[in-house]
Amino acid sequence: MVEIVDLTKQFGDVTAVDHLNLKIPRGELFTILGPNAAGKTTTIKVLTGLIKATSGLAFLAGYDVQRAPMEARKRLAYVPDYPFLYDKLTPAEFLRFIGELFRLRVDQVNAQGRDLIERFQLGPYLHQPIEGLSHGTRQRVAIVSALLHDPEVFVIDEPMVGLDPHHGRVVKDILQERSREGMTVFLSTHQLNVAEEVADRIGIMHQGRLAALGTPMELRRHSGSDGPLEQAFLALTEDESMPQGDGLLGK
Amino acid sequence: MSQCHKETDCWGSNRVGKVPIGRLNRMAKRGVDNSSLEQPILVPETESGAQARLLGGSRGRSPLRLLLWAHLRQSWRRLRSLTEQSPLLIGLIALFVGGYFWIAFWLFYHAFGFLSSFPGLGPLLSERLLFILFAFLFVLLLFSNLIISYTNLFRNRETTFLLSLPVPAETIVSWKFLESILLASWAFLFLISPFLVAYGLVQSVPWHFYPMTLLFLGMFIVLPGVVGTWLAILVARYMDRRSFQIAALTFGAIILGGFAWWLRAEAGAGDDQETRVLVILDRLLAKTAFAQFPWLPSYWLASGVLFWSEGAIRTALFFSSVLLSYALLFGWVVSTQMGTWFYSAISEVHSRGHVLGRWQWFHNRQKARSSASDQVTGPVERIIGWIPKLGRDVRALVVKDIRLFWRDTSQWGQSLVLFGLLGVYIINLRQFSQQLTQPFWVHLVAYLNLAACSLNLATLTTRFVYPQFSLEGKRLWIVGLAPLGLERVVRAKFWLALIASLLITLSLVTLSCVMLKMPFARVLYFAGAVTVMCFTLTGMAVGLGVLYPNFKEDNPSKIVSGFGGTFCLVLSFVYILSSVVLLAMGSPWETGGSAAGLVAASWGIFVTISLAFGWVPLAIGLRRVRSIEMEG
CB B39 to CB A110 under 8 A? Predict the structure, then answer.
């Protein structure tokens, strides 16, 4: 359902993603972890078609995101860490807008949205301008709008940002439910406990490469640690070649 | 979920009107009654009928129409909130618009009347004026469209958002093209409308001249929009910030140099008044003949308008057909053929390393810089470091503000257009100094020059100084919580803006006065007046910027176009108008000479209103900032 083949992305002479290969089957909840500047966001940007790969291929639901971008996007939902919403529209209007972009009929938007709106407790905010909503509520609106068209692949970056524990739970439940029903989830997060709790498989990226791949249990075993995932993560991403900070900021 | 395979499109005919199986399964698991699906939750019960009809009617809207709908709705809400926010401001804006229109119309009407009083020459001069106006309009619109299209296409969160949705790249380009044309053109159309109305009334044109001119203009603005969008995509594809800055500076210098050479002063034509007028007119017509180059779209527009005003409808229709065919052809090219270019360009913008990265010497230089101990001390920091008694914290803030401005291409580009226009203006002044001999005209031009310089200052302060506080945006806490304190932040912004404004405006006034060959005493007088105006306009912009902040918006143009920005602009213009009139009334060089008492009184009132317009908003702003600190 998501396939990345020998993907490389360079920014000038900096290689952000280095010959990455990854295959995520349909219905899997895959979580990508990694330290800052590991190449996670770049991978997501290539996967969602926001930027072109320097070399290699990326497929969503069987479609090459570069050669058949429209077909891929029709099957994709993407929620970045700071999602864009039209501030002067209400959530109801925004959802209708997204629904129509995906060619859903009004009754389909209503039918699809009802369950999600109830679960995310968005009812009281539906007809208020988005600009007045809290960060968490905006995040909930973005997630609902992304799921409205029943995507085959859901790419989500830091989904828990701004969410309270209750709605964080709802997001985790929905991701797990949907993945059981066949939606492929590609989740990027720094919250190791979230990854450990929901992921079927975890990939750890480091310096543009996939440093480790497996179930949470396999990763722990691989790093020789029986403790929480944090220990495995730190062991796998430890890097002695990183430059030291001394002198970087001048006198 | 399983229904949505690539063989059966997610919204293909097999699924229209059906609830996806995945969703039904989920609802069954959660014990939700399926019958509730019939009740629309996104449509309020009270207005469900009307809403359903509205939505039903809009079924199958294209992405472009959907975007238009979303933005129209947003604009309507903005307008409504503005009217609810301050009816006083709306009244003030209406007064300003009406006042501008009336004054501009009055000036143009009398100017056209004056021109038509010359038998034979009048119509020729009026005609040439129209050609020149539209040629300049074309160039200005081109630059304006380039800058706005670049920002809209490549520095806009909506564009990135749309790229992840099933919206074709061609549609994104089309939408941003339309948006840029509207944003770039409305002000120009507003500014030239009194000119065209005055022309029409002097020429006694039939009523249909006005709607036809509007139609001509509607077709015309598409063409600079097309070129601007195309150039924006090319710039984004092949240039990074630094190479664009170098190219823009070089291009600006070439254009200014070209103008300086083209408009160079030439030797007089003898003392005989009649011979002199004829020679000057001959030169004027020769120097402005470029505006009648038949391949310029402005030529088609001006010809169409002129022929229509003269009743030569068939010829006018020919020119309108030329405009229409080019507008349609290039409009079609932009909306259907530039998607792939745009996608490559935006990918390049987000993937770009340094433009010099392909050369080894650049890497060596970077390595040398990174190994040096003072690597983050750039030229700006070194220059600011020369200012004595400047605290390290204030220095850091000033350096940050200068760097952010310098690195924002759109800000930079707009300043360049503004300074380019000023350059052309100053170069033109040389012509005046040679032709003005009567004291009345010298006097009038001197005060008009003061008005021009201060209006330029008002544009600078409103466009670049007013949004400075808002631009701290979500990062306000960084400077707000630092030991520096928000009040000192605002004070530092005021002084930085004031020094920059003074440097620019004093140079401008001095240069323009020298070009007009004014005596030293007059240069000092106008420099003094403009210094007071600098304090006032900067104080007003900083103060109102604090009083009406917009921390949600990153785009300074949009911050300026809000409530506070408009208020600042209107207030600045009112202040300039009243100040210049006041100073002119109490001018020490007025024919016959004003009494010393009158000069002193006019300066006294001028300083008083300057304090009221500048110091008061700044003081209130600083007080507000102190309360923001306490709330924080």
Answer: yes
Q: Both A218 and A123 in a single domain?
A: no
* CB A188, CB A41: distance < 8 Å: yes
Tell me how far apart the alpha carbons of residues A227 and B143 are, in angstroms, rounded to a whole number: 61
Here the CATH number for the domain that contains residue A1 is 3.40.50.300
Termini Cα distance of chain B: 48
Q: How far is CA B43 from the centre of its chain?
A: 40
Say yes or no: B104 and B116 in one domain: yes
How would you write the pLDDT of chain A (251 residues) with one tens digit per residue?
899 999 999 987 789 999 999 999 999 999 999 998 899 999 999 999 999 999 999 999 999 999 999 999 999 999 998 899 998 899 999 999 999 999 888 888 888 888 899 999 999 999 999 988 998 999 999 999 999 999 999 999 998 888 999 999 999 999 999 999 999 999 999 989 899 999 999 999 999 999 899 998 888 887 776 677 787 788 777 764 444 434 334 33
The Cα B34–Cα B553 span in angstroms is 43
Q: Which residues in chain B are closer than 8 Å to A65, comparing Cβ atoms?
A: none
Q: Domain check: are A161 and A202 in the same one?
A: yes
DSSP-based three-state secondary structure for B279: helix
The partner residues of B564 in beta bridges, in order of sequence, read: none
Of A9, A84, A101, the CB nearest to B166: A101
Residue B26: domain span: 1-32
Which of A133, A150, A154 is best to mutate for the B interface (most B CBs within 10 A)? A150
Question: Both B477 and B394 in a single domain?
Answer: no
Please state the ipTM of this predicted complex: 0.90
Beta bridge partner(s), residue A31? A187, A202
